[in-house]
Specification:
With about 450 residues, this protein is α/β, with parallel strands linked by helices. The protein has helices spanning about 5-15, 35, 50-55, 95-110, 130-135, 195, 245-255, 265-275, 285-310, 320-340, 345-355, 365, 370-390, 395-405, 410-420, 425-435; strands at about 20-25, 65-70, 80, 85-95, 120-125, 145, 150-155, 160-170, 205, 215-225, 235-245, 395, 425. The strands form 3 sheets. Strands 1, 2, 4, 5, 6, 7, 8, 10 and 11 form a 9-stranded mixed sheet that branches. Strands 3-9 form a two-stranded parallel sheet. The termini are far apart.
């Protein structure tokens, strides 16, 4: 079944609303909790029910569901399956394992009509109860059940945790199930040096296209609480289920690909950027494609973060919010110039994001002028900073230090940009700025 992203969201919410779930409004990024302040260190995708997950209150008597947006905790590295900005279709409640698994399977196979033969589940080796439910009650063949050590969940600091089960999409069923029982096929794994040195492998988007299974539905059995210090876990007074389905990955599945860059969530941004660059996305080389993907990926969180914060004057924002947005814009501008684009164009991409997102995020349209008014000067500053070096014909030690420290750009990003613009890189000047080594 081919569904656009709005249909996917709507069918999820309708499914759980029909099963006595309260549909909650999306939490804005300005929620005053530790999640965003420690964005580079957390994996708390359970943001919508953070008081429960962090142990501040107990059992969610009301079954709830929510469409929630997130910024990846890993803000420096992207992959084909791990964008900077993503959305989770999340639900939780005090229902049983059996009920949660039956609902999840029904949603995947009957509502979204994903073929049963293309779905694989993974189970923790200790969790014989879940294994029995998948195999004996739901009827999943044993060859489509993988025992994996990755099936557990806990926040990076303290909070509720438990073992889990996941549903994965089989991207390559032709490989045969006798070769499938490898947990390395489920999640991202380190690549060889040859992979990282590929011409089209920039510092942010790493190749993942060979992974067989695409994990998209995570169901956690919250049973204990981990302390901030130490390893002793305390059993919860009331167990509950916390479940999340990744919209970007689900859209890739339902729209015919294994990469979210092929979905309606981001492809319109890629094509708009390609048009500005004067290239045909389907016919261009891999390095150009990766550059287009990175620009599109980085503008999405910048727009959504700005949309949530713009209701207050920017000088009242936390400093790290400005820093994140500036980092994303600088990366976008750097690769825009690598593509040969010669003038700012962020306003065109903002309009695309608003048009495709306003159905579920109406505040994007309501605040579009304010978003543009904040992001355009930020983008222009990045352009002027890089253009100043292009006119001099050299990348100074000062700019190198700024690109590394302030904008977290990679050396290979800068080298590609310098090569494209025939610039000399002043590494000696940069090393002098760092000062003498201390023994």
């Amino acid at each position: 079944m081919h569904l656009n992203s709005n249909q996917i969201r709507q069918q999820f919410l309708e499914f759980y609303a029909a099963r006595a779930h309260q549909i909650l409004p999306t939490e804005p990024f300005v929620v005053n909790i530790s999640y965003l302040n420690s964005i580079s260190r957390t994996n708390l995708w359970t943001l919508p029910f953070h008081p429960i997950s962090l142990g501040e209150k107990y059992s969610p008597e009301n079954h709830s569901a929510i469409l929630q947006k997130y910024i990846s905790p890993n803000v420096r590295v992207l992959t084909e399956r791990h964008p900077t900005f993503f959305e989770m279709l999340t639900h939780w409640g005090d229902y049983s394992k059996q009920q949660a698994l039956i609902w999840a399977w029904e949603l995947c196979t009957e509502i979204y009509q994903i073929p049963r033969s293309r779905l694989v589940v993974s189970v923790d080796a200790r969790d014989t109860e879940t294994l029995a439910i998948w195999r004996d009650q739901i009827g999943i063949p044993e060859q489509q059940i993988i025992i994996s050590r990755w099936n557990s969940w806990r926040p990076n600091s303290s909070g509720h945790c438990g073992i889990s089960t996941r549903i994965h999409y089989d991207c390559y069923p032709e490989r045969g199930y006798e070769l499938a029982a490898s947990e390395e096929d489920i999640e991202f794994r380190s690549k060889s040096k040859e992979e990282y040195d590929r011409e089209d492998s920039i510092g942010h988007i790493l190749p993942e296209e060979d992974l067989r299974f695409l994990s998209f539905y995570h169901l956690v059995f919250m049973t204990s609480e981990s302390p901030k210090y130490g390893n002793t876990r305390t059993p919860l007074k009331t167990n509950y289920m916390a479940c999340g389905m990744n919209l970007e990955r689900l859209a890739a599945i339902l729209q015919g690909g294994s990469s979210f860059y092929q979905t309606d969530l981001i492809l319109p941004l890629i094509l708009r950027t390609a048009k500005v660059a004067g290239v045909e996305y389907d016919r261009t080389d891999n390095l150009t494609k990766v550059s287009l993907k990175l620009i599109a990926d980085q503008i999405r969180p910048a727009v959504h973060l700005t949309a949530d914060y713009i209701v207050t004057p920017p000088h009242h924002w936390p400093q790290f919010i400005h820093q994140l947005i500036q980092m994303w814009l600088m990366r976008g501008v750097l690769y825009s110039q690598i593509l040969g684009i010669e003038e700012p164009f962020v306003e065109l991409l903002i309009d695309k994001i608003v048009t495709f997102g306003e159905v579920f995020y109406p505040h994007l349209r309501q605040r579009q002028k304010e978003i543009v008014a904040y992001l355009k000067p930020q983008e222009s500053y990045c352009w002027s900073l890089l253009d100043g070096e292009r006119k001099k014909g050299i990348v100074s030690g000062y700019l190198l230090d700024k690109l590394f420290r302030t904008y977290h750009c990679y050396r290979q990003d800068i080298e590609k940009w310098a090569q494209k613009n025939s610039l000399t890189i002043d590494w000696d000047g940069y090393n002098l700025m760092l000062g003498p080594e201390i023994d």
